[in-house]
Amino acid sequence: MAHLDFDAVLKTAATRKTKTMIVCGDDRKPAVKAVLQARDMGLVKPIFCGIGFSELKAERDLLFPGLNTTEARGQSLKMVSDGAADIFLDTEQLTCESLRLISENGLVNGRITSYVSICQLPKENRLTLLTDTLVNPAPDLKDKIAILGNAISVAAALGIQEPKIAALAPLELVNPAIRSTLDAAVLSKMSQRGQFGKAIIEGPLAMDNAESASAARHKGIRSPVPGDVDIYFFPDIESADITAQFLSRVFRVRFAGILAGTGIPIVVKSPLERDDAWLVNIALAVLTCI
After folding, report:
1. Which residues, 6+ apart, have CB-to-CB distance to 71 below 8 Å?
2. How far apart, in whole angstroms, are the C-alpha atoms of residue 217 and residue 259?
3. Where are the alpha helices (DSSP H) in 18-121?
4. Which of 21, 117, 125, 199 fits 44 for a cystine, CB–CB 3.0-4.6 Å?
5. Bridge partners, residue 267, by sequence
6. Structurally, what CATH architecture does the domain formed by 6-163+230-288 represent?
7. pLDDT at 156
8. How many CB atoms within 10 Å of residue 147?
9. DSSP bridge partners of 130
C-alpha cells in the first residue's frame, strides 16, 4: 500500500532492520540531531567520520578523527563501497565534487544519478514524487530513461507499484521544434510497450492537463494519468526547481527526498527541504535499502 504521508514513512521504516549508516560532514545541529533521533528510533546505527564530529567522540562511534571533511568523505565513501555500511549521509550540500567521489568509488548503480523530491500536495491524500529537482541540468533522452527508472524504484519503495507518470512539457502536442515534447512522446510509447514495467507514462502533458482529467479530455487525451499523477517528470532541472520552489515557498508544501541511482542509499538535503526533512530522508534511505 502506498504511503499517505511522511509519518507513515517513518513508521514503516521503524519496522525494518536497523541499518548501519556512515555520516560525513560536520557537526551541523539539524543533521546530527536527526541522525541521533533516527538512532533512537532504531532506524540506523550511525558511524561519524572526520574532525567535524570530534565533539561526539566521547559518546558515539567516530572514525578518522584527524581528517578534515574532504579527506574523511573520500575515506568513508571507500568504506561504503567496500560494504562497511548500508547507508551514507553527508551533512554538506551536494556538489559536483561529491558526485564525482560517489561515482569514482563505484557507488553509481546505473548510468546516472538523480534526485527524487517527495511531497504531499495540498489536494492530495498521498505522497507525490517530482524529478529531477537537483542533479541533471538538461538531460537527453538516454538520461531521462535512467532518471525515470530511478524514480520508479523510489516509488516502489514507497508502496507505489504501478506509478502513473506525467511526462511534462510546455504543451500537450508533439512539436518537432520543442525537444521536451518529442522526448515525452517517446517515453510514453516506451511505456505502452512495457519498457518501464507496470509504470504508466503519459506525455507530452502540459501542467493543466496533467492536473485535470477534464482538461485532458477536452484536449482529446484519454489516459488514466491526468488528475491522478504519482510522479511528475520534468524535462529539465530549471522547470523542476522553479515548480518545486513555488510549491515550497508559496504553498508551504513540505518536501523530503533522496539521491537515486546509487548502489546504496545516499542521504543529502536539497535546498527545497526544511531541516526536519533530514529524519524523513533517513527513513526513505532505510526503505530503499536492498
Report:
1. 50, 64
2. 35
3. 29-40, 69-81, 96-104
4. 21
5. 89
6. 3-Layer(aba) Sandwich (3.40)
7. 96
8. 26
9. 117, 232
Residue 259 to residue 154: CA distance in whole angstroms? 10
Dist CA 160 CA 261 (whole Å): 18
What are the tens digits of pLDDT across the range 176-232?
999 999 999 999 999 999 999 999 999 999 999 998 888 888 888 899 998 999 999
Provide the grid cell at 74. Answer: 573520500
pTM over 0.90: yes
What span, in angstroms and rounded, lies between the C-alpha atoms of 239 and 68? Answer: 36
For the chain, the straight-line distance linking the first and the last C-alpha, in angstroms and rounded, comes to 18
DSSP state of 233: E
Q: Where are the domains of the chain?
A: 6-163+230-288
The whole-angstrom separation of Cα 116 and Cα 167 is 15
pLDDT value of residue 111? 75
Q: Is 51 in contact with 68 (CB distance < 8 Å)? A: yes
What confidence tens digit (pLDDT) does each residue in 64-123 have? 777 788 888 888 888 888 888 999 999 888 888 888 888 877 788 667 999 999 998 877
Angstrom distance (rounded) from CA 227 to CA 127: 14
Residue 262, C-alpha cell as written in the block: 546509487
The full DSSP string for 227-275 is: T--SEEE-SSHHHHHHHHHHHHHHS---EEEEEESBSS-EE---TTS-T
- Tell how strand 19-24 and strand 44-49 pair up: parallel
